Here is the input.
Amino acid sequence: MEDQALTIVILAAGLGTRMKSKKAKVLHRAGGITLVENVVQSALKIATPENVFVVTGHQADEVEAILKPYGVTFFRQLEQKGTGHAMLMGESMLSERKGRLIVLYGDTPLLSDGTLQALLERDKATRSAATVITTILEDPTGYGRIVMDDSHHIIAIVEQKAATLDQYKIKEINSGIYSFDSALLWKYIHTIKPNNPAKEYYLTDMIEILRHAGHHAVTLRVEDPSELLGINSRVELAVADKILRDRKSKELMLDGVTIEYPETVQIDRQVKVGPDTIVGPLTQLRGNTVIGEDCYIGAGCIIEDSTIEDGVEVHPYSIINKSVVESGSHIGPFARLRQDNHIEQGVHIGNFVELKNTRMGAGAKARHLSYLGDATIGEKSNIGAGTITCNYDGKKKAPTRIGRETFVGSNSTLVAPLTLGDESYVGAGSVVTEEVPADALALGRARQVNKEGYAKKLREQD
Here is the structure.
């Protein structure tokens, strides 16, 4: 059987009142990204962006803004009248599409792309009018039960309150995730009736409608029930977040990354880490961070939206945000790269050094207790302990430019805008306000005066 055309619709219009949040449920985060992004990313493993549609409603502008970079298409459900009604809002876009149509939910972030691929294979094998993803629960309380015939076709999906005693004992439950023959879905979807206390239109009814029309529906049973967890509370959100991060850690370890005490480490879903890198305990790798091979990331580090090249050592309790660290550099311990920094090859950034919007040339060093903001520092320059760039005058920021192989003595204050020439020196304890030429020595401090016997006199007075 040739591959069928595929359309995926993700329902993400609901309020999520049980989250008790001002924010739409699908905008809460698990694994470092929003719930709905998790679902979109899985969908895009089996479908191209032009074949993925997202139904938005509550806080639609915010949801669509988050998903716009993925290239998916949106349509809106402005009234909350059930899953069937949500699909009907996109009828003009979807009804002419051939092949299969899969319905997913924006609050089920744990559904794997492997399960979606298995769903496609099941469709190919059975040519069914519909396939329902199911699972076995030891305690199926609250879920619709799957009633099957001897041919393993679904007879009905029975809600618990309507179940007979025998049906009540069934442990196979409906996830609400469906794959339909698209032509049959649109042929019969208008026959769904709001015959329920909420007066809503439910896609679940399509299974019985298709059966009465002479078509059959089958199941795809998922062995891991956690894949089908829908998020309705902060407690379930925390559970999903842990599962996603455990999956990510396992994936990286299988790819050759050492993670020490992985139960303490938090790694976002989209982070990439190269083989033979060691990640210490209590570390957080966030956002679009990319870490190369043979790196060492010490305990308690937080790295977000940054690129760490091969062979970099980030020592414990360092924070790196929106920065690039080139190969062979050493950062920390207790260093902070705030944002927009570029650290070239072989640089040493030591303990309690803070950088912001600064470029450190290859081989440069700032080993202790410094603040370097809006600065460009030449290769092989040395920044002494306690040095600060005074880059803000209360109204605007100004740059500091330090040449190559320049030596800045300890406890220097560099008042921007300022340029220090190549191979120049700044004496320790200097306040430098004017340009320093290449090869010059700058001294910006008062001459030392010794008052003989003065300390003894003070002690005698005490």
